[in-house]
């Protein structure tokens, strides 16, 4: 049975409420600059941004503020240590909603006779967070399950708050170039999309199944989903039994716990590097030791995704650092930051110094947190902002390393990265990957061949008349000035035909395709002489 939509909240009323919260925490200038109260100045005074006041403001906003603060606590590329410490005090733990308020959600999702599906349902929640509460229950067939229910009114309140925060960020960007450099609108929109996804409990269940299918191949457990009872506002999943990782403590040489830590780290790294979709919050409360050393993950409300292009960029960055190619490292970081205007030569010097600090160090002697700390210092110095999708990646890595070291202090997660990166590189440079790349090239060349008659006709016209028709875009004159005295040689039809033939022959014979490309290269070289 479909759940009725939640009643939207007035943005005007919520804006007035947030304006009062700002005033309560002493941000009068900020409230005036953002238009909450009459003000003769649009200037935003950065001195009002004090860690304690900002954290209190976020806490008073409610669930969206708390979740935003938790995310900001992972952004060491933006904030210094005392800010990160302040944000880290925000915890997503709230007083539970009465079951009398939760039951209508169950009835609207399953029908008024919903109790008939259960042999037992404990009305006392196991946990209560800002988005949902969880309950233990037993189905009629004896299956023990966890029931996760979205708190009533949550979606409407959060959607209103995100819309308002994005609007405030747009005003702040327009009035402060310093703030605009950090792209808060992009950050908040991404935050809003992720939050909307987290409120969809069916989406969480689908992520659990997708990632779980991959984790199963390496022996890691995830809950099975009971889809007949799962929807937008409620999901029902298998209850995993084991020892919560939060109860393990330091291993003190316990081989079982050390083996568990290694399996956990291996699972996190493989999710990120090889699978591209990963559990975004693998803290000890979401991890179980099952049996002697098996790992189990629960709660896929936060999920990170790295596109193939992004993973390729990360591989390129790792290879550039390993090869001490400072220029390539700078290229990746600047591309991630949106190509801001910075002193590239100074950045290259600082990057070379940073890489030099770890030069000659054994991999097992390097901590991710140590590397990230130095990189984040550099990013802040040059005001380079990482893309939002990398924030959850960094949070996951730092959470994983901190957790593993708490279980096995001598274990180094960086050392485990090496064989996994080797697998990724083998995948990237495999025969199948090369064939896929050549197929894409073939498609592009076939597209070019469609316009080849026009190109040749234009070339023939130029050859007969001696004139080259040129149309200049005024914005391109500056670029053209740096390219003068360069000539473009005409490519003959024989070379074009050979290149196209090469693309067509890829599927039939690599040898013939390669031969065609070699001959085409010879023709083009001779043509240019």
UniProtKB/TrEMBL annotation:
**InterPro entries tied to this protein:** ABC1_dom, Kinase-like_dom_sf, UbiB_kinase
The source's domain of life comes to Bacteria
Q: Which SUPFAM superfamilies match?
A: Protein kinase-like (PK-like)
Q: Which UniProt keywords apply?
A: Membrane, Transmembrane, Transmembrane helix
Q: Which chain regions cross the lipid bilayer?
A: 494-525
Keyword Transmembrane recorded? yes
Can you give the residue ranges of the ABC1 atypical kinase-like domain?
Answer: 90-331
Describe the family membership recorded for this protein in Swiss-Prot or TrEMBL.
Answer: Belongs to the protein kinase superfamily. ADCK protein kinase family.
Output this protein's name. Answer: AarF/UbiB family protein
Q: Which organism is it from?
A: Qipengyuania spongiae
